[in-house]
Automatic annotation (TrEMBL), chain A:
Highest taxon of the lineage: Eukaryota
UniProt entry keywords in alphabetical sequence: Electron transport, Transport
GO molecular function, one term: electron transfer activity
The protein's name in its UniProt record: Electron transfer flavoprotein subunit beta
Record domain Electron transfer flavoprotein alpha/beta-subunit N-terminal: where: 38-232
Family: Belongs to the ETF beta-subunit/FixA family.
PROSITE patterns per record: ETF_BETA
Native source organism of the sequence: Macrostomum lignano
Region described as Disordered: spans on this chain: 228-247
One biological process term in Gene Ontology: amino acid catabolic process
UniProtKB/TrEMBL annotation, chain B:
Location within or outside the cell: Mitochondrion
Coiled coil residues, start to end: none
Family stated for the protein in its record: Belongs to the acyl-CoA dehydrogenase family.
Catalytic center residues: 297
Pathway as given in its UniProt record: Amino-acid degradation; L-leucine degradation; (S)-3-hydroxy-3-methylglutaryl-CoA from 3-isovaleryl-CoA: step 1/3
Protein name (database record): Isovaleryl-CoA dehydrogenase, mitochondrial
GO BP annotation list: L-leucine catabolic process
Acyl-CoA dehydrogenase/oxidase N-terminal domain segment(s): 58-172
Protein source organism: Macrostomum lignano
């Protein structure tokens, strides 16, 4: 059953309502090990934390609240019971309330961006945010798909790899600067929209102790995929996961001629 | 002396872990999660994990540790080696401001003055993680936040608190506490600094203080002086002295074995006039302020050696699993397994003792016996663990590119400051005698 969120919707009438996605991933500093059966990587007992790009997304939502562009910021995480810790971190950074879509352990390993984007789309139907900010990709699977798929499912405009979000000239839209291969692209998107955060969007704050303490009192609602009516059947099957080959020693060459000669030897150049 | 530099893929022992941001930058736009073992710098377990389940910490305290760990590893740890080499923390004012913003300078101070109104255990966690990153700066932090700020919180009048706490807690001012003198260390109540009452009610201070942490930089100092020398211990009064008072100076910064970067000085009071409303606590009742403050100081500072022991485990355990000899990593040889086990047990049991006593203090129970006991145990254990870390690093433990030597030099201070190990043993022994007094 769904916990009824506090009906007195505070400042939601003023400013944008933002939904921020947070994923619990293996901490970036951990030495990842492949499981002996090659079905995946070892996650048991391994340190996890919030996906760094999601921290940037959370920080942006909090800053937009501080600038009064946003009235309410809600964090959402799709994952195992421990995802609640990730949500508490978001709350401690300044998010108002959190939603946890709990995935049973058996289905967790097979969860893919297509499922997550469908779950998020369902939540958007009831929460009706004006802006969804997601990290551009997760550092475990590096898919870079959820934001784009979500926008397609909702038929909302998307602005991915954002390095800046501000109101447009006429203040009716959002002006987003995107980091693309050729440089920076600036586009105006109407709300509601999906934005994904890139590295240079901001530098996330440290959660202070008073905010960590306040976070405990903020509402955290739980939901299940069944309630949301989303089928978690995997569309892909992981056949094997392996370590990349051990890097072989290279060779140094003295001149360009030597380099071309070596490339010819290896048949890499005619 | 002949020794071979290990063929490490990176100077893992000398540099702090890169932040999440640097990690993302290195992987670049087409972020690919590489399991390539040659990039051990980014992926190795540089820190020996702490199992917070053992200590009964609340969720908030676990999060607090995470936050302070990240903050200190990013802002402080990369500078630790340089701070030690230069005997100076050039960015102290900037760091103090950052601590102020996080509320770290007034963990136990009331919120109305900008403090967090949190517990001694929360304060100890902050002290521990900061000490893990850089023991010297953590010592200065402890002197500021506990010896100075907390004493004002406990004994200051409302006016004194309003005047001094906000800027001390925001990080605009640095605080210190001065009790020891060149000829009065363990026997601190034999101090000779005089505070002579004047006709207008103010006091004039004459004398000098020695080994004062933050002395060279402090804006506000809690000073103990004799208003009634003939009454011995019961003639001491506590004063709040400001840096720009005429006649006050820091005559020199001391060149120390360790804790280099935690500026320690000799303070000279040459006819320093202190107004009557800067007397803290009861006139001639300073010994109570001093002794009860010492208990809390010992308790809070015992988190310092905890952090050093954790840093010793961080450095040595990782090294033992990277360094190879005779065909395997040296951490798998029994003698080193034994050393690591001893280091682990000292650290874990020390934490249990410190956290238990801080919890008891937070509930209102202050036991001088245990306050002395925690710092006695942790300080001696930290020295031993630092020695073990040097030994595990072998030849590399002996060169200053690696942090083990600094850990030893820093750890040793804790056997001396805030009451030497000898004095601590006396305190505990006498307390036990008291229990059996008929």
């Amino acid at each position: 059953y769904i916990h009824i969120i506090n009906k007195a919707d505070m400042a939601a009438s003023k400013g944008l309502k933002i939904l921020v996605g947070c994923k619990r991933v293996i901490d970036y500093a951990v030495k990842v090990r492949v499981k002996p059966d090659r079905s995946g990587v070892v996650t048991e007992g391994v340190k996890h934390s919030m996906n760094p790009f999601d921290e940037i997304a959370v920080e942006e939502a909090v800053r937009m609240k501080e600038k009064k562009l946003a009235g309410e910021a809600v964090a959402i995480s799709v994952g195992p019971p421990q995802s609640q810790e990730t949500l508490r971190t978001a709350l401690a950074m300044g998010i108002d309330r959190a939603i946890h879509v709990e995935i049973p352990l058996a289905q967790l390993e097979k969860l893919q961006p297509i499922h997550v984007s469908k779950l998020l789309a369902k939540v958007c139907e009831s929460e009706k945010p004006d802006l969804v900010i997601l990290g551009k990709q997760a550092i475990d699977d590096d898919c870079n798909q959820t934001g784009q798929m979500l926008a397609a499912l909702l038929d909302w405009p998307q602005a991915t790899f954002a390095s800046k979000i501000e109101p447009s000239q006429d203040s009716k839209q959002l002006r987003v600067t995107r980091e693309v291969d050729g440089g920076l692209e600036t586009i105006d998107v109407s709300v509601p929209a999906v934005v994904t955060s890139d590295l240079r969007l901001n530098e996330p704050r440290y959660a202070t102790l008073p905010n960590i303490m306040k976070a405990k009192k903020k509402p955290l609602a739980k939901m299940s995929p069944d309630q949301l009516g989303v089928d978690l059947q995997p569309r892909q099957e992981v056949i094997s996961v392996e370590d990349p080959p051990v890097r072989k020693a290279g060779a140094k060459v003295e001149s360009v001629e030597d380099l071309v000669g070596k490339l010819r030897e290896k048949g890499l150049v005619k | 002396m002949q020794f071979i530099r290990p063929v490490l893929h990176s100077q893992v022992c000398t540099s702090a872990r890169p932040s999440a941001r640097q990690f993302l930058q290195k992987l670049g736009k087409s972020c690919s999660f590489s399991l390539n073992s040659s990039s051990t710098r980014l992926y190795s377990t540089e820190f020996f994990p702490i199992n917070d389940e053992l200590y009964g910490l609340t969720d908030e305290q676990k999060q607090l540790r995470q936050t302070i760990f990240q903050f200190c590893q990013k802002e402080l740890a990369p500078k630790a080696q340089q701070i030690d080499a230069e005997n100076d923390f050039k960015d102290i004012k900037k760091f103090w401001r950052q601590c102020g913003e996080l509320g770290l300078l007034g963990v136990t101070a009331p919120t109305e003055y900008g403090g967090l109104g949190a517990s001694y255990l929360d304060h100890a966690i902050v002290m521990e993680e900061m000490s893990r990153a850089c023991a010297a700066v953590a010592l200065s932090y402890g002197a500021h936040s506990n010896l100075c700020v907390n004493q004002i919180v406990r004994h200051g009048t409302d006016e004194q608190k309003s005047r001094y706490l906000p800027k001390l807690i925001s990080g605009e001012w640095i605080g210190a506490l001065a009790m020891s003198e060149p000829n009065a260390g363990s026997d601190v109540v034999s101090m000779t600094m005089r505070a002579d009452k004047q006709s207008d009610g103010s006091y004039v201070l004459n004398g000098s203080k020695f080994w004062i942490t933050n002395g060279p930089d402090a804006d506000v100092i809690v000073v103990y002086a004799k208003t009634k020398p003939e009454a011995g211990a019961h003639g001491i009064t506590t004063f709040l002295v400001e840096r720009d008072s005429p006649g006050f100076s820091c005559s020199r910064k001391l060149d120390k074995l360790g804790m280099r970067g935690s500026n320690t000085g000799e303070l000279v009071f040459d006819g320093v006039r202190v107004p009557a409303d800067r007397v803290m606590g009861r006139l001639d009742g300073g010994v109570y302020v001093l002794m009860s403050g010492l208990d809390i100081e010992r308790l809070l500072l015992s988190a310092g050696p905890l952090g050093i022991m954790q840093a010793a485990c961080d450095t040595a355990f990782q090294y033992a699993h990277i360094r190879k000899a005779f065909g395997q990593s040296i951490g798998q040889f029994q003698l080193l397994q034994g050393k690591m086990a001893d280091m682990y047990c000292r650290l874990t049991s020390g934490r249990c003792y410190v956290y238990s006593v801080t919890r008891a203090l937070a509930q209102g129970s202050r036991q001088p016996m245990d306050c002395a006991g925690v710092i006695l145990k942790c300080a001696e254990d930290a020295t031993q663990s630092a020695l073990d870390a040097i030994q595990i690093l072998g030849g590399n433990g002996y060169i200053n590119e690696y942090p083990a030597g600094r850990l030893l030099r820093d750890a040793k201070l804790y056997e001396i400051g805030a009451g030497t190990s000898e004095v601590r043993r006396l305190v505990i022994g006498r307390a036990i005698n008291n229990i059996y007094k008929s």
